[in-house]
Design goal:
By secondary structure, the protein is of the alpha/beta class. The chain is about 40% helix and about 40% strand. The longest helix has 17 residues, at about 60-80.
Length: about 90
């Protein structure tokens, strides 16, 4: 899968790493799994770092982005203080 999400710092953070071509399914499925995880685990997060440096193309529809945004809104209710940063070397 072009998107991998791993916990870091003993569960205080998560690192999302994208590689290659990212499609709707991969984008939605990885975010759904991450944002729908156990509430108590998600509450522990202080940061989420998204590393998009190795992404070569993004084939993600506005519908998939809307679906992930809805998941993000629900996750924000659980942990409104998590800091999210995205790193990329080009417009994606």
């Amino acid at each position: 899968m072009p998107i991998e999400i791993k916990n870091s710092d003993n569960g205080l953070g998560a690192i999302l790493t994208g590689r290659g071509v990212v499609t709707d399914k991969e984008f939605f499925d990885s975010h759904k799994e991450h944002l729908s995880q156990d509430r108590n685990e998600y509450k522990k997060y202080r940061y989420i770092l998204s590393d998009w440096m190795a992404v070569t193309a993004v084939e993600v529809s506005s519908q998939a982005i809307d679906q992930v945004a809805k998941l993000g809104k629900e996750a924000a209710k659980i942990n409104p203080d998590v800091v999210i940063a995205h790193v990329t070397n080009k417009d994606i």
